[in-house]
Design brief:
With 307 residues, the protein is mainly alpha-helical. The chain has 2 domains: 190 residues, Alpha Horseshoe (Serine Threonine Protein Phosphatase 5, Tetratricopeptide repeat), CATH 1.25.40.10; 91 residues. It has 15 helices and 2 strands. The chain has a two-stranded antiparallel ribbon. Helix 4 runs antiparallel to helix 5 and helix 8 runs antiparallel to helix 9.
């Protein structure tokens, strides 16, 4: 449903409600506080669809109320919790693009970065947090943006970029975010990597590259399969069966070259697994939980700031 269609439906609902009240002989009275509280209670009860409608109604009737921005933010948050990121993203961006730079603006930047991260758009998530760090007046907000950015880069296994983000955190907040321990762990890294080139060269002897990558079952299969095809081709040629010997040889060459490329790919996968395990261990042991509120899948957030 388009934004224009939503406006039309909301307007029709209001007109219908007003007409029904007038028909009953009563005057239509909507109190700002009651309307806001009703919309808020819908949100707190996780009735996000109704919360969106009620907050829109609040904005329509009380466009000058000081809580309009809060209503817009809660609408965006309702879309977020309802997993409608296509709606939540522009709603948060609207809050970011107008009005005073306040707590709701900061939260909107953070939620936008979380949507990008959820979509695995790590570069966009980092850019959003970088923009927040640039415009933030509070050192605490700026440091939190750098901290979140560091973890975004870690999720994408960009360890060097992560180090640079953590390094930008002010000395006064380094203890709070365990930066010294993080830096030491990042310097140590996930351990020694396997070389794809070495794995490929070792695979001149079938199975040795897989053995180097600690893929023991694959190493055994590769050795036995290549040995069996080589022996079959030799036996067929020895028995003057050139046609089948040639076929076995062609199959052997195919599996032999596959053995080499498989070993090189295995080295890459080994390195990725080690890096992933390393990052998961860092998250478990050193990541600070910046939130204490509602949850959606692996995202939990309710952030407070001092301005």
């Amino acid at each position: 449903m388009t934004h224009a269609a939503e406006k039309i439906i909301l307007a029709l609902a209001i007109i219908f409600f007003a007409a029904s009240v007038c028909h009953s002989g009563n005057s239509l009275q909507i109190d700002a506080d009651q309307q806001f509280q009703f919309a808020e209670s819908s949100f707190n009860n996780s009735d996000y669809s109704q919360a969106i409608d009620e907050f829109k109604r609040f904005i329509y009737f009380f466009p000058q109320d000081r809580r309009v921005k809060e209503a817009e933010y809660t609408i965006a948050l309702s879309w977020f919790f309802d997993k409608r990121m296509d709606k939540a993203m522009p709603a948060f961006e609207k809050i970011m693009d107008h009005g005073a730079f306040d707590e709701l603006t900061v939260k909107s930047y953070i939620h936008k970065s979380m949507i990008h991260e959820r979509r695995r758009e790590y570069g966009n998530a980092a850019v959003t947090l970088s923009n927040l760090a640039v415009i933030a007046e509070s050192p605490e907000v700026r440091d939190e943006a750098y901290y979140r950015m560091g973890w975004v880069w870690l999720e994408s296994m960009e360890l060097e970029k992560s180090k640079k983000s953590f390094a930008k955190i002010a000395r006064t907040d380094r203890k709070k975010y365990r930066i010294d321990s993080l830096s030491q762990s990042l310097e140590a890294g996930p351990g020694k990597k396997k070389s794809p080139l070495a794995a490929g060269l070792l695979s001149i002897i079938p199975g040795m590259g897989q053995l180097y990558c600690e893929r023991y079952h694959d190493a055994l299969v590769s050795f036995l399969l290549n040995a069996a095809l080589g022996w079959s081709a030799w036996e067929l040629f020895e028995n003057d069966n050139s046609a089948l010997g040639s076929l076995a040889a062609l199959l052997g060459i195919g599996f032999y070259s596959g053995n080499i490329s498989s070993a090189a790919a295995g080295a890459h996968k080994y390195n990725q697994r080690r890096a992933r395990h390393f990052i998961d261990r860092l998250k478990q042991n050193l990541k600070i939980n910046l939130s204490a509120g509602r949850q959606m899948d692996d995202f939990t957030f309710f952030v407070t700031y001092r301005f």
